[in-house]
Amino acid sequence: MTRKFYQSLFLCFLIAGTQLSANAQKQPSVQENSMYAPQGIRIDGKNKEWNNTFQANNKRTNLQYTLCNDDKNLYLAVKCNDLLSSRKIAGAGLSFSVNINGKKDEKESISLTYPALSSSTNSNPGRGGQARGGRGQGGNRMGTKSQPSSKEKDSIQAANIKSLLAQAKEIQIKGLKTSTDSLISMYNELGVKAVASMGEDHVFFYEMAIPLEALGLNQNSKEFAYQLKINGLSERGAGGFGGAGMNFEELMSPTDFWGKYTLARK
Asked: Where would one find the signal peptide in this protein (predicted)?
């Protein structure tokens, strides 16, 4: 009886795993449906309201995301399991652009980029010295140093990302209907909110809220186009991170995709 029980239990786990894999494969690369925002959203960089379930999984950018709205705001929630992509976002920002005319044209779009860091901040993310190949605890008396393990490299990168996010205090904006500024504080009076975090499990999470009015949208608006773009790091910002297991060229290369969205109505 015990043997049959464990066989049945194993079969249940096998079926559940197969279903999860199938669901992951079915998930679109670009969100296909409108979604009314869950109640009580707090833009705090914590994956609470989303139940770890997202509307799309974009392999080009390594981003899982959900775009949704209520009567006042447009919300973006992003999860990233890839440290290289997370490092690029922390250092060069994730740009969210909206073209209310439905055109996939970046130049004519309203855009918001967070984090918006100075080049000096980005080139010195706190603990990055370990990633740049300086002598560390792995060195011995003869001046040689052992190579960090894959797990140690990941921990170094996660620490760099956390350090950068701790210094992120501004949002770069372009074309916003309610402001002529190009740079605003995270703590602004426009109602624009953005926060990101790096968890202990090395999973990056990002939230943004934008008033519909600031985008020139309302409940009668037609379908609009949007872009998610992970900006590439500058040569200065990317310098040395190849030594911690990251591809230098990939760090400097932007990646993006476009989608279409129509505001959900309650």
From this structure: 1-24
* Residue ranges of E strands in the chain: 56-58, 63-69, 73-80, 94-99, 110-114, 170-174, 183-185, 193-198, 204-211, 224-230, 255-261
DSSP β-bridge partners for residue 227? 97, 258
- Quick one: which of 128, 219, 131 has its CA closest to 167? 128
Task: List, edge to edge, every strand of the sheet that includes 255-261.
Answer: 183-185, 170-174, 110-114, 94-99, 224-230, 255-261
Say what the pTM is.
Answer: 0.82
List, for residues 93-136, the tens digit of each pLDDT value. Answer: 999 999 999 999 999 999 999 999 875 555 555 544 444 444 44
Q: How far apart are CA 205 and CA 197, in angstroms?
A: 5
94 or 153, higher pLDDT: 94
How far apart are alpha carbons 155 and 265 in whole angstroms? Answer: 43
Are 115 and 77 contacting, i.e. CB atoms less than 8 angstroms apart?
no
Tokens of 249: 């060229």
Contact 89, 196 (CB under 8 A): yes
How far apart (Å, rounded) are the C-alpha atoms in residues 68 and 126?
35
Do the Cβ atoms of 84 and 155 come closer than 8 Å? no
Task: Tell me the three state secondary structure of residue 219.
Answer: coil
According to CATH, what is the number of the domain 27-132+148-261? Answer: 2.60.40
